[in-house]
Amino acid sequence: MADKVTIGAKFRTYAYFYLNEILTDPTTVQLYHDTPDKVRTLYVYGVDAEIVKESVGTYYFEYRALTVGPNVFRWDSDVEGWAASDIYVIAAPSVFI
């Protein structure tokens, strides 16, 4: 199921990395973002300021939805056993405008 946001709204997507049930910092943290315009961008923690480390094993990406349609996010890392999954966020105009 996709989350829904209003055009212009900011939202965050989080990733939690565990090793043996303990939050752990991976060597690499990456986030793929596909926009409604079908543009894919790769963000890398430590290279791109958009990925923020909140605490050990906890990272987030803050995004402002500017285009109507689906945004797809996928976190990735080198943590053994990490199962990446797609996060869908649908941006739509406000019903109040």
Write up what this structure looks like.
The structure is a single chain. The chain has no helices and ten strands. With 97 residues, the chain is mainly beta. The protein has one domain: Immunoglobulins (Immunoglobulin-like). The chain has a five-stranded mixed sheet, with no helix packed on it. A hairpin with a 5-residue loop joins β5 (29-34) and β6. The model has no long low-confidence stretch (mean pLDDT 90).
CATH class designation = Mainly Beta
Task: Say how many strands there are.
Answer: 10
- Helical fraction equals under 10%
User: What name does the CATH topology carry?
Assistant: Immunoglobulin-like
Strand order of the largest sheet: 1-10-9-5-6
Order of helices and strands: EEEEEEEEEE
Secondary-structure arrangement, i.e. CATH architecture: Sandwich
Low-confidence stretches: none
Overall domain count? 1
- How much strand? over 45%
Q: For this structure, what is the CATH homologous superfamily? A: Immunoglobulins
Figure out the total of helices.
0
Instruction: Determine Rg (CA atoms, Å).
Output: 14 Å
Question: What is the overall pLDDT average?
Answer: 90
Inertia-based shape = elongated
Structural class: mainly beta
Q: Major beta sheet, specifics?
A: 5 strands, mixed
Alpha-carbon distance between the termini?
25 Å
